[in-house]
Design brief:
This protein has 342 residues and is mainly β. The protein has four helices and 16 strands.
């Protein structure tokens, strides 16, 4: 089944978790805000209540009056439904703490209570009646860049404890940043991305009294190409056309970038040559379909045209290539004319 188009500025088809988010949105379990989903933000207890009540059609009202959730709170009915179904009781101080981040252990407990009455408050099950007090954790943040200083999205970060067990994971978004909520302690860290060499940091201390931040540079595994200059004529080796890229401009259109290029093709041979095509390649996704007019140019004839590629801000274009026919190409090659996208 094809996932519906989300139209979120910070998620694109084929990206990490896109299909799952799309299905949840279609089922009215979750939704975005002002055109953004914010996939890497932490979920609060109020948001968790809304997700669970919508996903499992939970309803009900109780006499529980949390001191920090009144009837005007946006998630009031969702929280009431969880209490009525004995999925949560709130904390022992009569608070629900709707803006506190939900921890994985708490979310697992609430799910189990939804499926199994044995774990609900008041049952003979092993869990205490009040929601367990959260462990004290701190933010560990970082930025991932490449060897050219460009921010990297889609890098996978894993944090390991002293037993080499994974205790936390994250993925960088378009600004190359990640945030992990973790207890103070000693850890090691790994960073992986399909287009870069793996990175490891063996000794890492996270301390509640310190700024826990790292800046990491990844080395690209992409083949290094000799990129061409603007406003210079070059002869294409595969079709013999002389090509000049007159301009290449990047425009921020709010929710996406637009790459506008103007080019001239000139036939300096004695034969009739079909016009070639351009293709845009990305670090983190499949290339866009080729663009071209494919009209015949006669000896001495020139044609100047302009084209606009639209790409999401999470995309990472790096190479614009020209050739006779690039339709089936998945990666750029050294013998083809190409210009760097930055």
């Amino acid at each position: 089944m094809t996932a519906p188009n989300l139209n979120f500025h910070d998620m694109s088809p084929g990206g990490y978790g896109y299909d799952k988010v799309a299905n949840a949105v279609e089922l009215d379990i979750i939704n975005g805000s002002n055109g953004y989903f914010k996939p890497w933000e932490t979920v609060t207890r109020a948001q968790m209540a809304a997700i669970l009540s919508r996903a499992y059609d939970l309803e009900g009202n109780t006499n529980s009056n949390f001191t920090d959730v009144n009837e005007n709170h946006w998630a009031y009915s969702n929280i009431q439904a969880l209490v009525a179904n004995k999925i949560t009781t709130g904390y022992s101080d009569q608070t629900f703490r709707p803006n506190a981040f939900i921890q994985r252990q708490h979310f697992s407990l609430f799910l189990e209570r939804n499926f199994n009455d044995f774990f609900k408050p008041g049952s003979p099950g092993p869990s205490p009646d009040p929601d367990p007090e959260p462990e004290q954790k701190v933010n560990f943040v970082g930025t991932i860049k490449d060897d050219k200083g460009e921010l990297i999205s889609g890098a996978e970060i894993q944090l390991y404890d002293e037993n080499n067990d994974i205790v936390a994971e994250a993925i960088t978004i378009g600004n190359g940043e990640f945030i992990i909520l973790v207890e103070s302690g000693e850890y090691s860290l790994s960073v992986t991305h399909e287009n870069y060499e793996a990175y490891e940091l063996q000794e890492l201390t996270v301390n509640a009294d310190a700024e826990n931040e790292v800046n990491i540079t990844l080395q690209s595994t992409q083949v290094s190409f000799e990129y061409l200059e603007l406003n210079q004529p070059y002869v294409s080796g595969d079709n013999g056309m002389t090509v000049e890229l007159n301009s290449l401009e990047k425009i921020d259109q709010g929710g996406f970038y637009e790459y506008i290029f103007n080019y001239t093709e000139t036939n300096h041979t004695k034969d009739v040559i079909p016009q070639g095509a351009f293709k845009l390649y990305f670090q983190n996704e499949e290339p866009v379909p080729q663009y071209g007019f494919f009209n015949d140019l006669y000896p001495g004839e020139s044609a100047t045209r302009e084209y606009r590629f639209k790409v999401l801000k999470s995309s990472e274009p790096y190479c614009l290539e020209y050739g006779g026919n690039l339709f089936f190409k998945e990666e750029p090659t050294a013998e083809i004319l190409k210009w760097e996208i930055s």
